[in-house]
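Action item from last meeting closed. Structure (552 res):
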């Protein structure tokens, strides 16, 4: 046998892409694999043991359908793509998440899917509940709230609220973040799995949680109702109301469900009750509804039976894991608390050390400032002492100057008094001189008048004498031998003597007047010189008084 024959023939494969809510994986599948083989491969890759909740969904001709576990993958109607894409999603939902979801991975996958359905508005949630759910989602992602680390704006890139809620309330992103953070801060100490479980416990009470809706009609002509399938039963809704069903059939009250082409029949356990029939638009939709009804009914019955050995083991492991995680969380919480206390103590010590260092630095600075102040004060004291000496010297000089100025002022006052007295005397002299000048002027005027009168009298006397001479001696020239010359001469000489005497008196008087006038002019000139000297002295005294005032 050849070596080539010994080699095992490699089976033919095809590629598939598995898309979970938060990841993607690719696998190579054998051509003969059934849907269960691929599904088990994905569950093993995820570490998932609670496989009965999940399935592989794909889209064909615009309709979402689930991969059948008992048929080959390639024998089912698949999209023409390479690799073939499947979404790994929860197909069935638990009635009570806290009791049925045992594995952390199962819980995490449900959390991610339900969160996406709420954000995509496939599940209606009130605005208040969305904020609370968002706070648990933030706790699951970021852990405990730390204001030093989670600064404003740290949720800016997280999608936490449905767009419907954001449109309904005109609040800014900062306001929404503040509301979410207020709840988030209250969840301190809650681990990630606990936060996700709290999220699911709130979500499972929402009216649209876990319900698959399909349009149906009670007759073949109109599609005017919605049929919903969930973990508790089948519900009939009006087309515009997905919250409150018009009619419900719990799994415990259903005896049989049958499917034939586009018709689906629900037979109640009570044989007297009315059988409910409805129609769907396509056979595939009817089959999908039928599959979901069978799967949910099986899980409903399974929950009410005794758990299998595998489930019991899983529950025991889950309890042990929860206990271990609880102890681990408590230990971590204690360590975290001790670490925080140690950090606070460290911060307190660092703060105290910084404070002491700051106090020491301030004390050193104060000491330096004190030394500088002491040196400065010493310099100031020396300067003050020198200034005191200088001031004392200046004071002495000022005192001397003051005494000198007082003496000068006294002298000035005395000189001023004397000068004023001299001025008064000069004024009196001037007044006297003016009076004397007036008197002398008047006397001179009288003398001039008397002189004029005397001269006029002299002229008249001479004229009269001449006239008398002419009258008495008319022939004196004609008869000179007979003239009594001696007597005429004697008489004429007598008259001439009288005239000469009078003329002499007039000359003397004129001389005296001229002399007095000259004396008066001389006195006036001396008096004017004396007045000028007095004015100069007074001006000099005034200048000295002004200078003395400036120095004072």
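Sequence:
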């Amino acid at each position: 046998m050849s070596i080539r024959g010994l080699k095992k023939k490699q089976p033919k494969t095809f590629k598939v892409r598995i898309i979970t809510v938060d990841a993607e994986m690719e696998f190579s599948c054998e051509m003969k694999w059934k849907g269960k083989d691929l599904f088990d491969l994905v569950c093993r890759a995820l570490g998932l043991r609670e496989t009965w909740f999940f399935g592989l969904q794909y889209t064909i001709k615009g309709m979402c359908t689930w991969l059948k576990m008992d048929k080959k993958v390639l024998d089912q109607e698949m999209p023409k793509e390479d690799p073939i894409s499947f979404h790994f999603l929860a197909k069935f939902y638990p009635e009570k998440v806290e009791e049925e979801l045992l594995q952390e991975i199962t819980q995490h996958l449900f959390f991610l899917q339900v969160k996406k359905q709420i954000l995509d508005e496939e599940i209606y949630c009130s605005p208040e509940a969305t904020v609370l759910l968002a706070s648990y989602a933030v706790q699951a992602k970021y852990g405990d709230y730390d204001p030093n680390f989670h600064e404003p704006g740290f949720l800016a890139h997280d999608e936490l609220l449905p767009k419907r809620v954001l449109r309904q309330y005109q609040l800014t992103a900062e306001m929404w973040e503040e509301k979410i953070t207020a709840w988030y801060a209250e969840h301190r100490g809650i681990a990630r799995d606990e936060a996700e479980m709290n999220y699911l416990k709130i979500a499972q009470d929402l009216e649209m949680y876990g319900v698959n809706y399909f349009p149906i009609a009670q007759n073949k002509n109109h599609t005017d109702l919605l049929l919903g399938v969930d973990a508790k039963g089948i519900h009939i809704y009006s087309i515009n109301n997905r919250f409150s069903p018009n009619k419900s059939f719990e799994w415990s009250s259903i005896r049989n469900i049958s499917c034939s082409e586009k018709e689906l029949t629900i037979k109640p356990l009570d044989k007297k009750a009315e059988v409910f029939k409805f129609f769907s638009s396509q056979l595939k939709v009817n089959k999908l509804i039928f599959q979901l009804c069978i799967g949910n009914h099986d899980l409903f019955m399974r929950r009410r039976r005794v758990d299998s050995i595998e489930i019991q083991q899983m529950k025991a492991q889950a309890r042990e894991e929860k206990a271990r995680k609880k102890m681990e969380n408590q230990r971590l919480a204690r360590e975290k608390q001790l670490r925080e206390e140690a950090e606070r103590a460290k911060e307190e010590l660092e703060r105290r050390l910084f404070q002491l260092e700051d106090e020491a630095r301030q004390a050193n600075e104060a000491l330096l400032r004190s030394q500088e102040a002491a040196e400065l004060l010493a310099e100031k004291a020396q300067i003050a002492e020198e200034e005191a000496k200088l001031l004392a010297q200046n004071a002495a000089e000022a005192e001397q100057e003051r005494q000198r100025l007082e003496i000068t002022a006294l002298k000035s006052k005395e000189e001023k008094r004397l000068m004023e007295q001299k001025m008064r005397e000069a004024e009196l002299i001037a007044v006297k001189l003016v009076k004397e000048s007036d008197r002398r002027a008047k006397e001179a005027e009288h003398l001039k008048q008397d002189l004029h009168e005397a001269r006029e009298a002299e002229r008249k006397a001479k004229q009269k004498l001449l006239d008398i001479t002419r009258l008495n001696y008319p022939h004196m020239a004609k008869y000179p031998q007979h003239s009594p010359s001696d007597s005429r001469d004697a008489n004429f000489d007598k008259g001439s003597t009288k005239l000469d005497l009078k003329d002499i008196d007039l000359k003397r008087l004129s001389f005296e007047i001229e002399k007095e006038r000259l004396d008066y002019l001389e006195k006036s000139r001396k008096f004017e010189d004396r007045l000028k000297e007095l004015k100069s002295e007074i001006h000099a005294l005034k200048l000295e008084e002004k200078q003395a005032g400036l120095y004072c």
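Note appended to the action item: The mean pLDDT is 82.
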